[in-house]
Amino acid sequence: MQHLSRVLCSAAAVVATTAACGGSAATPNGQSQQAAFPLTITRTGGIAGFRDVVVVTGDGLVAVTHKGKVPRRCRLTPGAMQRLATAASQVPWPGITPAGTQASIADDMVSTVKSPAGGPVRLEGSRAGKGGQVFVELLNDLNDEQVASRVCPPV
Question: Higher model confidence: residue 85 or residue 24?
Answer without folding.
Answer: 85
